Amino acid sequence: QVQVMESGGGLVQAGGSLRLSCLASGPIYIITAMGWYRQAPGKQRELVATITKNGDTDYAEAVKGRFTISRDYAKVSLQMNSLKPEDTAVYYCYQNIKTHAWIKADDFWGQGTQVTVSS
Fold it and tell me: What is the pLDDT of residues 74-102, one digit of tens each?
C-alpha cells in the first residue's frame, strides 16, 4: 500500500521561510507527477505547484517567485520564501503513482500539514 507523508509545516512570521517535504513509500513503479495544494479556512482547496517526472514545473500566480517545487525520486519538496499571512493554510501533497506497470496511475494524498504565517 502506497503511503504519502508530509513534514515541515509550522508557524512563521511574515517574510520568513519554511520548507515542506513529502515522501512516498510502498510499491512504486513510476511517479508521473507530484504537487502541492492548500486549503485555507472557509476556502476551496487550490493548486500551489506541480512538477512532472521530466521536471517541468507550474505555479499558482499567488506564489510565483516565492515558492520553489523540487523532486528527488519519491520525495517532493516545497521551499516557501517571503511568506505572507495569506499563505496560511493546510498544505496537502499528492503524488500520481503507478504501483505496477499494468495498473493505471492514481493520485495518493498526504494527510496535510499546517502552515501559519503571522503578521
Answer: 999 999 999 999 999 999 999 999 999 99
